[in-house]
Design goal:
7-stranded parallel β-sheet, alpha/beta
Length: 393
């Protein structure tokens, strides 16, 4: 930059970086208004050290000079930007600077410093529809795209090396097949829209999933290896991690239908989908306002109903059987109770048998039971495993 350009820029530059100089320096300059002296902070961009104007304490200056300085300083404004431009002159100075000249003042500033000097724009939210779900994780996002049960709006992918992974590439390809917009974002953006959960570098904005309400009352023909239908009935499962783990086990082991109470039960959230490794996007989960009515209808159709209890719990009206000794000989409903309270008394009274899981060691007090998702997996495997042929162990 030549000297002429520098003089022009200093002449029309906003005086927001003006600050007090030292009194001794003011006296040497011979200025009548010594406190208001342009310091080295005018050399952009390092003007962040500007300090607001302060009142001088009585010193070697005469009282008359101090009074004259006070009169001058009263015309100046001390704002959050530490500007000391007079109110009367500020608007005039602003009008004198054309947009072209203002842009010229940034020509010799490094790109990084230009960004800090300009007014930052407010970040727009990535997910504009608050009613949508944010599905996170590789398997949930892939299955949500391929199953077509959700209305997908946008796919968010972490910008960087992760986009080279085969799993991420596969999800992006499925999104492109369906003309879904793909937006590359930073990891902090994914952390924000997924509420800090493990997103594996990918999130999906889509409509939520709901419990299915249609039910014909007729048993569905099974296409699994087991010839006898088995329905899993969940009574008040509230933990989304437990519900996700139950869905994964039920799908893997070949359960024909999953039913759940709508009262005091966990909704089908993205957390459930992630805990199920995306199984929630595949299986159909039916919700009932009154499980008792559904169970009574199935009993009239010849289905048997089995519930679960702890090893110390027994019922005088319903026989208790070890799960290893029970054989499923006709269509069955397996009832699993919620965390803590277990099956309600009304549902337990409808059971034909109560199953228990025997421990393999002496248990200490307080650990007499299993997690509901673990217990469900054990019971399903026991019921769906055919007995060995006679003559073989």
């Amino acid at each position: 930059m030549n000297l002429k350009s520098l003089n022009m820029m200093l002449r029309f530059m906003p005086l927001r970086s003006v600050r007090l100089c030292e009194p001794s320096q003011a006296l040497r300059n011979g200025s009548q208004i010594a406190p208001y002296h342009c310091s080295k902070s005018l050399s952009w961009p390092g003007d962040s050290g500007s300090k607001p104007a302060v009142k001088l304490q009585p010193s070697a200056f005469s009282g008359a000079s101090l009074r004259s300085r006070a009169k001058v300083s009263s015309e100046w404004e001390d704002d959050p930007e530490h500007s000391v431009v007079p109110r009367k002159l500020r608007s005039k100075v602003t009008r004198k600077i054309s947009p072209e000249l203002h842009a010229l003042s940034f020509d010799d500033i490094p790109e990084g410093n230009q960004k800090t000097l300009r007014t930052p724009k407010e970040d727009k939210p990535l997910v504009t529809n608050k009613r949508d779900d944010v599905v996170f994780g590789l398997s949930p996002c892939l299955l949500a795209l391929t199953q077509g049960r959700r209305k997908v709006s946008r796919l968010f992918v972490k910008d960087g090396e992760d986009q080279q992974r085969d799993a991420v590439r596969k999800v992006c390809e499925e999104a492109m097949k369906r003309d879904i917009q793909i937006k590359w974002v930073q990891k902090r953006d994914l952390d924000k829209i997924s509420n800090g959960r493990v997103h594996q570098g990918i999130c999906l904005q889509a409509s939520p999933l709901q419990y299915l309400r249609e039910w014909s009352g007729k048993p569905k023909k099974t296409a699994h290896r087991n010839q006898i239908p088995l329905w899993l009935v969940l009574d008040g499962i509230q933990d989304p991690m437990n519900l996700g783990a139950i869905l994964r086990s039920a799908y893997f082991l070949g359960v024909d239908r999953i039913a759940s109470s709508l009262q005091n039960s966990c909704p089908l959230t993205p957390v459930v989908s992630k805990a199920s490794s995306g199984v929630m996007e595949v299986v159909e989960i039916y919700g009932y306002d009154d499980l008792e009515d559904m169970i009574k209808v199935k009993k009239e159709q010849g289905w048997q109903v089995v519930g679960t209890v702890g090893i110390e719990e027994e019922s005088a009206d319903v026989p208790t059987v070890k799960c290893s000794d029970f054989r499923m000989l006709k269509p069955t409903l397996l009832l699993m109770g919620g965390e803590g309270s277990g099956l309600s008394a009304a549902l337990r009274a409808l059971c034909d048998a109560l199953l228990t899981i025997s421990p393999r060691r002496d248990l200490n007090p307080g650990v007499e039971s299993l997690n509901v998702s673990v217990a469900t997996g054990i019971l399903l495997h026991s019921l769906l495993t055919p007995p060995p042929p006679r003559g073989r162990r």
